[in-house]
Write a structure and sequence with these properties.
The protein is 50% helix and 15% strand. By secondary structure, it is an alpha/beta fold. The protein folds into 2 domains: 2-202, NAD(P)-binding Rossmann-like Domain (Rossmann fold), CATH 3.40.50.720; 205-380, Orthogonal Bundle (N-(1-d-carboxylethyl)-l-norvaline Dehydrogenase, domain 2). It binds 1,4-dihydronicotinamide adenine dinucleotide (NAI) and 6-O-phosphono-beta-D-fructofuranose. 6-O-phosphono-beta-D-fructofuranose (F6P) is lined by residues 122, 158, 160, 214-215, 218, 291, 293. It catalyses: D-mannitol 1-phosphate + NAD(+) = beta-D-fructose 6-phosphate + NADH + H(+).
């Protein structure tokens, strides 16, 4: 079995690549980072250091790596005969990998089983987005021809993989916890064999619970930690002001998850507490800069703050803590984060309603709109 994985970064090496390797796949990493590709190809194996309770060291062997920027034809040939394609490149990058997948599907022998395509990104229905990008990279006739050659399945991925020490080379440090949830309906009776993954009939509740608990809470810790001048996420969680803010947003998103998906409040409370423990893991060298990265993506319409806050507003349920967290996110100011720099410019260039429309994608008639305008106005005062 062969899997081609786009993005040999933190999640690629420390999570998806590891689980595919453990499932018996030969993993072919594809990345635009030439140095990383060369380093992977030079080494016969790399290690994944799982830190925290029950930690240990795992070894990944039998992989190959291809520079997707300079060796596109080689990559297309690999995908043509692969069983699985996964991505962990960031939701905004999916449009760049889509044309390569389309070209490989066009060349794929129609006698082969369909190629399983799964985007492993922090976004709701990222694989649907990838599928749309694959479709729009070809004409309607070609899409009709290649669509039966692939199965697109949405997934939710959860494992904290912090920025890595450059001295570690290609080895990766990760938390011990992981969860990879995959929707099963697209597969019918022919699911891929991935023992580390969980297949579910309906992914919606899982991905929303993950994004609106793990990611909302983590990003809140990052933005409050940054505002308090704290560097490490575990230190941020130790500051009462930050921990209180995180707990408060998670109370609000939990109220939504309970109301919307019928999740048992006690089960959600246990899930929340476990996550707070994961954030506070002192063995994980994670920073507020990494976890807060790309604030414009995180403040967009269906993401971890505006997504739940908008639905809470629509249902008339409190969302004060989420609004406060948005206000704190607006203070994120990291010179080498392009979106942080752009956010700072937009805050100067646009008036508050225009900023809210542009960044959050909400229209003026939405019940959350005027509340966000007030938050932005305060942050500019
Ligand atoms: N790090 C984490 O704890 C988690 C990350 N995620 C998600 O996983 C995705 C990747 O995140 P990380 O691994 O942390 O980022 P990362 O920055 O460590 O890795 C991304 C990799 O993608 C590569 N890349 C960029 N453009 C590419 C292209 N056109 N073709 C091929 N490769 C390309 C980069 O060179 C980099 O090696 C994101 O969507 C993130 O939200 C999800 C759960 C946890
Ligand atoms: O690119 P993003 O969305 O910041 O992804 C990283 C996030 O995902 C997580 O791993 C949670 O699964 C956290 O480490 C972090 O908050």
């Amino acid at each position: 079995m062969k899997a081609v994985h786009f993005g040999a970064g933190n999640i690629g090496r420390g999570f998806v690549g590891l689980l595919l390797h453990d499932a018996g796949y030969e993993v072919v990493f594809a990345d635009v980072n030439a140095e990383l590709i060369d380093a992977l190809n030079r080494a016969p194996s790399y290690q994944v250091h799982e830190v925290g309770d029950g930690g240990g060291v795992r070894t990944v062997t039998g992989y190959r790596a291809i520079n997707s920027a300079s060796s596109e034809n080689e990559l297309i040939a690999e995908i043509q005969t692969a069983d699985v394609v996964t991505t962990a490149v960031g939701p905004n990058i999916l449009r760049f990998v889509a044309p390569v997948i389309a070209r490989a599907l066009a060349l794929r022998d129609s006698g082969l089983p369909p190629l399983v395509v799964m985007a492993c990104e922090n976004a709701i229905n990222a694989t649907d987005l990838l599928k749309t990008e694959v479709q729009s990279s070809v004409g309607p006739d070609e899409w009709e021809a290649i669509a039966p050659r692939a199965i697109f399945a949405n997934t939710a991925v959860d494992r904290i993989v912090p920025g890595q020490d450059p001295a570690a080379g290609i080895d990766v440090t990760v938390e011990t916890f992981y969860e990879w949830v995959i929707e099963s309906p697209p597969f019918g009776d022919a699911r891929p064999e991935i023992p580390g993954a969980t297949f579910v009939d309906a992914l919606g509740p899982y991905i929303e619970r993950k994004l609106f608990t793990v990611n909302t809470g983590h990003a809140t810790a990052a933005y409050y930690g940054f505002a308090a001048g704290i560097d490490r996420i575990s230190d941020a969680l130790a500051a009462p002001r930050v921990a209180d803010a995180v707990r408060a947003v998670l109370e609000e998103t939990s109220a939504l998850l309970v109301a919307k998906h019928g999740i048992d409040p006690d089960v959600q409370r246990v899930y929340r507490e476990k996550i707070l423990g994961r954030f506070a893991n002192p063995h994980l060298p994670d920073t507020v800069q990494r976890v807060g990265r790309q604030p414009l993506r995180k403040l967009s319409r269906n993401e971890r703050f505006i997504g739940p806050a908008a639905e809470l507003a629509e249902r008339g349920i409190p969302r004060t803590a989420l609004l406060d967290a948005v206000g704190t996110a607006l203070r994120f100011d990291v010179a080498d984060d392009e979106q942080s720099v752009e956010m700072r410019s937009l805050l100067v260039e646009l008036d508050a309603p225009a900023f809210v429309e542009r960044v959050t994608g909400l229209a003026p008639g939405h019940p959350l709109f005027s509340e966000l305008v007030a938050v932005v106005s305060t942050s500019r005062a």
